[in-house]
Amino acid sequence: MAADWGLDRRSAVVWTVGLAAYLIGVMHRTSFGVAGLDAAERYTTGPALLSGFIVLQLIVYAALQVPAGVLLDRFGARKVITVGGLTMAAGQILLGLSTTLPVAIAARVLVGIGDAMTFVSMFSLVPAWFTARRVPLMTQLTGLIGQLGQVLSALPLAAVLHGAGWTPAFVSAGGIGVFVATAAWIVVRDRPPSVPAPPRVGGLRDVLAGVRDSWREPGTRLGFWSHTGTQFSGHVFALLWGVPYLVAGQGWSPAAAAGMLTLLVATGIAAGPLFGEFTARHPMRRSLLVIAVIVTTALMWTVVLLVPPPAPTWLLVLLVLVLATGGPGSMVGFDYARTFNPAHRSGTAVALVNIGGFTATLLIAFAVGAVLGAVSPDAYTPEAFRVAWTVQYAVWAVAIVGVLLCRRTARRKLAAEGVVVPPLREALARRLGR
């Protein structure tokens, strides 16, 4: 079995411990979402300021993507995962002990810092410990299994919070974080012993040159636009506006709306291995998968928004199933970063790609809220949601253009290196002719 997956026992252990660190990191990232009412009571503040907690944490996460990637290229995954895990754990413990709003804000900033470090580091371990044939599949599994950290925050953490209270919940979460970070330091290694270490990044000039060279690489930009166009719609739906849309815009119960989010996560996990296998078998056709996800998502939203609310249940279920493909589709962007960049700057390239979808998510989440407030200031209405969701089309249009232009540039570079990608029609004709 190990041979079939392109790994031995040691690589399996390294990946499992690294995955545990990432999963707990996702739990830390999403833990405040289950504590909104408790936080309002603890810090005596309103919902607007509480939402600022999440926004600030996400801004910190986005802003530190490139610095975290540079740290990864310089110091390696083991050190950065460990420091990132301990930083998040410190933030959770500080939040558990805090009684004032400024201290709580500082705690969530620490979580955002550690989260950025953990994410890019985990995705550098996969190509180091797996064969090239298995990297796309394992990248998909890493990203999707890691998202189960949301379940840890929604179930056991929430149970402790509402049972034992605020301090035990967040301090215990921090304790788990310390344990996993320690395990990562003991078990995780940057690469197998037989693989030589890549050249490390030098001073500031080398750092800036690495960022510049990574961005100039057409494959990085192709990954950036792929990630931008595929990720944001499902993320905005799952993280912020999906439940309000289904409840206020479609007349669903909160429990039924929450069930749709569960369906979204489960479908993404099921689709991930299929996307990974396609990417591994057809590396020169990865962009077709990305374009298919973007176009299908846009078309699905078009159909839903054209139907007067409430839309049929089957149509909304189909919408969620399509949105679920955005997560696996966005992972293709990281595969571009890996295959088009040398190992010594892969962390920087992955970070640049990740900024794309994450920035789009923040912009669209804000834009949907702004349009809702402008169209219906007093309450969320079905018609306001129909107008608000249309802001997504601008990002899809820009992303599709970016993918097509960068794909052309990337293929020109490949052709100059002796790798010619034949037109799809020609490739299909050859295959059928066999």
TrEMBL record:
InterPro entries for the chain: MFS, MFS_dom, MFS_trans_sf
Matching Gene3D superfamilies: MFS general substrate transporter like domains (1.20.1250.20)
GO cellular component, as recorded: plasma membrane
Protein name: Sugar phosphate permease
Annotated source species: Pseudonocardia thermophila
GO MF entries: transmembrane transporter activity
Location within or outside the cell: Cell membrane
Keywords linked to the UniProt accession: Membrane, Transmembrane, Transmembrane helix, Transport
UniProt feature coiled coil, ranges: none
Pfam families documented for this protein: MFS_1 (PF07690)
